[in-house]
Design a protein that fits this description.
This protein has helices spanning 53-69, 76-93, 146-152, 161-166, 200-203, 208-217, 221-235; strands spanning 4-10, 13-22, 32-36, 42-47, 105-110, 118-124, 128-133, 136-139, 183-188, 194-198, 240-247. With 248 residues, the protein is of the alpha+beta class. The chain has a single domain (4-141, 173-247), classed as Phosphatase 2c, domain 1. Strand 5 (105-110) and strand 6 form a beta hairpin. Helix 1 (53-69) runs antiparallel to helix 2. The radius of gyration is 17 Å and the shape is globular.
Length: 248
């Protein structure tokens, strides 16, 4: 299990970030993609849809294109434009492939234009971004799935067969024919904050209580990532990817 660690500075605050990814026990390949930038505050995770060539192509293309556009993406409009370019690139990559070419995209992007320390969260699909602040772990993103819509509107319960079937029916993703826009959230960075970006190999397989326990008890981001990935291998079988960002 390889864990990558970097440090960044945003608005005079120091951040430490770590990332890692595991194949899991179900697939022979990893359809998750993670990028943790070594020179600027940028972290991206993507999760391919399915287990074929389209899934591999989508995740790699989405992350590569977003990373190329991220240096200029300091405003909401620039981030939407970057994701629009991702949409076009993933659709182009899927031409001629026999299966679906699509993936999720969730990113943490430092905001140097803010007057104080801040970052953008970019959300497309059902990978997730959490924040731990003062002992409370909050989910900052929503899942772009029919399961989320159904449970939030009382059409079925989260543990029902309908919810399980709708869990994998995404309403927004990279490569979607309607090129949907991402959700964008600008968040302030407070000393002691922890951010977790992860694919559903973590959020579906590791409980909320366990996520909270790991993020509050481990001593550094690399240890947190390693523990979460280890839990995913013991509890589930899906590809799993995690990024932890600590505001020091």
């Amino acid at each position: 299990m390889e864990i990558t660690t970097v440090t960044w500075t945003i608005g005079g605050q120091r951040l430490t970030a770590a990332s890692g990814s595991v194949v899991g026990n179900r697939y022979s390949d990893n359809y998750d993609v993670v990028h943790l930038d070594g020179t600027r505050p940028l972290a991206v995770v993507a999760d391919g849809m399915g287990d074929g060539p389209g899934s591999l192509a989508a995740g790699r293309t989405a992350v590569d294109v977003f990373v190329r556009h991220a240096p200029a993406a300091e405003t909401a409009g620039a981030l939407r434009a970057a994701v629009a370019d991702v949409q076009q690139a993933v659709r182009k990559a899927g031409r001629g492939l026999p299966d679906l070419t699509g993936c999720t995209l969730t990113a943490f992007v430092g905001d140097p234009a803010a007057g104080d320390s801040a970052a953008w969260l970019v959300q497309l699909g059902d990978s997730r971004a959490y924040r731990l602040r003062n002992g409370l772990l909050e989910l900052l993103t929503i899942d772009h799935t029919l399961a989320w819509i159904g449970t939030m509107n009382g059409r079925f319960t989260p543990d029902s067969p309908q919810a399980r079937a709708a869990r994998y029916r995404l309403t927004r993703y990279a490569g979607h024919p309607d090129t949907p826009e991402p959700d964008l959230l600008n968040v302030g960075l407070h000393g002691g904050d922890l951010f977790l970006l992860c694919t559903d190999g973590i959020s579906d397989q590791v409980s909320y209580e366990r996520l909270t326990q790991v993020l509050t008890s481990e001593t550094n981001p690399a240890a947190m990532v390693e523990t979460l990935l280890g839990d995913s291998l013991l509890i589930g079988d899906d590809n799993a990817t995690a990024v932890v960002v600590r505001v020091d």
